[in-house]
Amino acid sequence: MRFIARYAKEREKGFEIVTVYEDEIQKEYVPFENPLIETVTKKYPAAIWFERKMQDDFGIIIKDAFDKRPLVHQERFPKGVHPLRKDFTDKELEEGEYLPYKYEAIDGDGVFQVAVGPIHAGIIEPGHFQFSQAGEDMLHLEVRHFYKNRGIEKMLEGKTLQEAKPIIERISANESIAYQICWRDIVLQATRQKLPLALQKRHALLLELERTVHHLTDLGFIPNDAGFGAALAKGSKLAEDARRKMRELTGHRFGFGSIDFANKFIDTVSFSEWLEALLHSVEFFQEWIIDIPSLWDRFDTTGILSLKKAAKYSTVGVVARASGLTQDRRINKFYFKHGFVMASEVSGDVGARFKIRLQELKNSISMMHNFLEEDESVLELEMLHDGEYHSFTESSIGELFMAIEIKNGVIERFFVRDPSFVNWQALHVMMRSDIIADFPLINKSCDLSYAGNDL
Amino acid sequence: MMKFWNKRVKLGILTENPEFEDDIKAIQKEIKDKINKKFAGSLAIRMVDSGSCNACEAECNALANPYYDLERLGIYFVASPRHADVMLLSGLMTFNMQPHVLEAYEQIPAPKWVITLGDCPAMEGVFEKTYAIKAPADKYLPVAHHIKGCPPSPREIIQGILDFLKKV
Question: In which residue ranges of chain A is pLDDT below 50?
Answer without folding.
Answer: none
